[in-house]
Known about the structure:
two-stranded antiparallel sheet; alpha+beta; 63% helix
Amino acid sequence: MNEKKNIVNEDEIDLIELAKLIWSKRIFILKVTGLFILLGLVIAFTSKVEFKASCKLLPESQEVSADLGGLGGLAGLAGFDLSGIGASGILSPELYPEIVHSVPFLNRMVSTPIYFESIDTTITSFDYFKDIDSPSLLGWMAEYTIGLPVKVKKMLFDSDQLIRQDYNLIRFSKKDWEIIEKYKNRLSVSVDSKTGTINISAEMPDPVAAAQVTDLLVKELTQRVTNYRLEKSVINLQFVQERFFEVKEEYSKKQKELARYTDRNRNITNSIIQTEYERLQNELNIAFEVYKGLATQLEQAKIKVKEETPVFTVLEPVRVPEDKSKPKRGIILIGFCIAGLFISIGLVFVKNLLNGR
C-alpha cells in the first residue's frame, strides 16, 4: 500500500511540476501561439475563394423485365411478340466516377465555354485556369520557394506547346496535363449505396461557373450513360429501319409489276400467262411477308429503345451557391491556434529536458 501511495504522490508531483513549468513559460507559449494565429489569419484571408454547387439524382431501377412490362402487354394486343427482347448491358452507377475522370470526358468538360460572373466573361474552363486564374499568396510563396527548382527546370527544358500529330490520339503538354489534373479534382461523383442516389458536385472560383459546370457535368454524364445503355439497341434499330425501307421499296415494285402484267393480259386466257401471273403473285406474297416481318421487328426495336432509355429523377436541382466552400476561416484559425499551443508546449518540454541533462 505504501508503494502505491508513493507512485500516486510522484505522479501528482510530476503533474504539478509540469503545470508549473507551463505556467512559468506562459509568455513564450502565448507568443508562439499568437504567431501561429497570425499566420492562420494570413492564410485564411489570402486563400483563394471557392464555391461548390451540387445536384442529387435518382436513377431508375436497374432491373428490366424480359416482357418489357406494360409495353409488352400492349404490343401483344397489337399482334407483336416481344418475348425475344431482353435487357441490354447496364452500366453500374459505381462506374460513374470513372467515366467523369476519364480523359475524353474531362477534355469535353474543360473545352465547353461557361460564364464567369466575377469577370463577366464566357470562356472555357481550360483557358480560365491557364490564362486568368492566379495562385493564392500561400501557393505563390510555395511556388517560388519549395517549388522554385521545378519551376526553373520547366522554364529551361519543358515546352508548353501542345504537340499535334496525325494520329487519332490525345496528347497535351505537361502544363496542360497539370491543368486537366487539377480540374479533375474539382469534379465529384459519388453513389450512396443505401439509397442509390447519385451526388454530383463541382467546385469553381466563381459561383455561377460552379453551377454551370455542375449542370454540364450532369448533362454529359447522363448522356454518356444513355449512349452506352442504348448503343446496341440503336444500332439494331438503324439496321432494321434501313432493311425495312429497302424491302418496302421492293414490295412496292412487285405490286406495280403485278398490276401492269394484269392490265396487259386482262382479257387473255392462256396457261403461260396464268403461270406467269401466279409467279408474280407468289413473289408479291413473299415480299409482303418479309415486309410484314420487318415492320414487326421495327416496332419491337423502337419499343426496346424507348424502354431501355434510362431515366434520372432530379431530387435536388443545381443552384447557384450563395456561400463559399473554401476557405473555412474559422477551422483554419482553430487549427493554427491548437497547432501553436502544442508546438510551443512541446518546445518548452524539449528545452527543459535539454537543460536538465
